[in-house]
Specification:
The structure is a homohexamer of 135-residue chains.
Chain A (H helix, E strand, L loop, with lengths): L12 E5 L3 H14 L2 E5 L2 H10 L6 E5 L8 H11 L5 E5 L5 H4 L4 E5 L4 H12 L1 E2 L5
Helix pairs in contact in A: 1-5, 2-3
Chain lengths: 135, 135, 135, 135, 135, 135
């Protein structure tokens, strides 16, 4: 889905936290296909710093849960929500059970394996403002 | 996402109201990529007339809010909902704040800049009948 | 949307019940485009048998409602939900009215004609775990 | 909650299907407390007949699932939804598992034991038209 | 439901717009029973003035749609949402059809006749912050 | 709303964590009015111990956020969700902002001051299994 790519002067920028290279590429490619711009970092520390700096106006966080290092995806989301309580959050994990205890409200969890379309839809759903009950 | 294009004898037709040409093309291309047919008009007056005539069976309205001329996107949606109370409505705008006062219920607002995938998802979500809470 | 295809070692596999060949192809292509793997069968009986056997771990059911033979799509979904009460279900039909009486809870109905993107979004929405109210 | 009882010239009338007398009374009293009028029948056959006759304009169905006789609560709801596809349905049951396979979409299930307030809230939620995401 | 009445030092105050006296009383009594404080005015003009003044911190608007005078309930809600875009809104009306064209997003409509419990639930649902999908 | 009290052989039991005595009474009375049984403890430590022991089958947690001692309401909910990932959670707090960062998914937050009916509705909504989009 590359229609209009490069024509909208700016696109929503998604901040991705992922420390495994093949997954970085899959996530990057899926979001680019959906028409999003993507910034990828390898640690939660970097992600929080980038939100804190406020230099770039990110639209959503997509984070792996099981990051190497002390800061897990759960921590990244909580710290960013303390800065911006409405910040959209998507988690990626192989073990979905912990979301009910560790996730933040109004977030979406993608259980691996997931299709690229699920990631694009999760981000889109969190960004769209609206109320839609079925007709 | 052009799988099957031309094979389904008819596709849902989306009525787009947009008076800036580059945006017309972006919206058109994104919806075509998602597999929808698209009719684009430049004014709310035309859109309402086409729904009123009933000649074509449109599936959803996608309208810019800040149209030139007296009729804004908010007015287009209200007039069409008076004709068909369940008609799906997607607004596009740079200033999202007015939706809470001027939008119709069960509509979706896309705040610019948005990715093409967000538009496709907004229309799809309003067209799909269903109830899905997470498993 | 084929980003990353083949790179994730496994993808969610969608079980499709459709007995008309052109529709089999459209549904298959749309889901593959979204990044899902697809298994297509022509009867509800086969579908239920495959879920029962437990050999493959299917992620969701997409079923035509008006199947030839005694078992309609409504029956397929009910039988599979008796095996797995949380199994995601998408119906495809030209006559949407019966869903309120014959559908299972937390399912999505696609009324024909539908765009390929609607199918991909329906499946994605049922697979994603999460709670998202608009910001 | 008996405010205004008798002052509104008519109140919504809830059709209750329950064949155990103590439960009839509990359900009746809870709904009356909430300000609803109540008609109680002991079998699904009677309930369907009353909806079919159209003499009284019932607002919602509250049905026990495990009724004596051949017609279970699941059947009552499906038959009534064939007459009125938007008819609100609340099930009461001790064994909640079957809802995912046997329930109709957009229904609510009360698992016994439940508090009277849960019943009043279930009926109210199905009757109120609206879309409310949290502020 | 008068538990705790008078013990919480302050209660949420609901602003009611209703110009028929018997209905004023019914609405007042139902909300008091639920534990809310109530301020009733007879015109939309007064309601908007009270929100604008900011003297009292109202928690929600409950308005009849068919008010005497030029300002209908639809107008009251739109004007108040321009002041506070997240203000909770409940409409009361005998003719529910117009809500889809004239209502604001994230509002609830009570179709007459309604039970007092429906009013209490509508207000409570709009005030509670949260996300609850069924377990 | 005391209809049927004592007639249902058991009622859902709500576990309340509150360390201020007047609030204990308000919460207790509101829930009893709604027809729930109530167990009140003064610390999160006790609450977690009671869920862990499994002696009583509690239906939901209602917890003040700002508890004295080291364990806040946020911690209580996370610990209990690690034991039972679907356990219904209602928070009560004067400062609502932290919920987006500290709350668990699928929980409800009551911002003080709240009416007793809001508490009863929050608990009921989390207990009721169902999917209800507006008719």
């Amino acid at each position: 889905m590359v229609a209009g790519e490069g024509k909208l002067q700016n696109l929503p920028i998604i901040l991705v936290v992922e420390d495994e290279e093949p997954l970085q590429e899959i996530v990057h490619d899926a979001l680019k296909e959906g028409g999003f711009d993507v910034t990828t970092v390898s640690s939660g520390r970097e992600a929080v710093a980038m939100i804190e700096s406020g230099v770039v106006n990110y639209s959503a966080l997509v984070t792996n849960v099981n990051l190497k290092g002390p800061m897990k995806g759960w921590d990244v989301a909580r710290l960013i929500r303390q800065i911006d309580p409405a910040f959209p959050v998507v988690y990626m994990t192989g073990a979905a059970e912990d979301w009910a205890a560790q996730g933040v409200p109004n977030s979406i969890l993608l259980k691996k394996p997931f299709a690229p379309a699920q990631l694009v839809m999760a981000v889109s759903q969190l960004l769209n403002t609206g109320s839609s009950t079925s007709p």
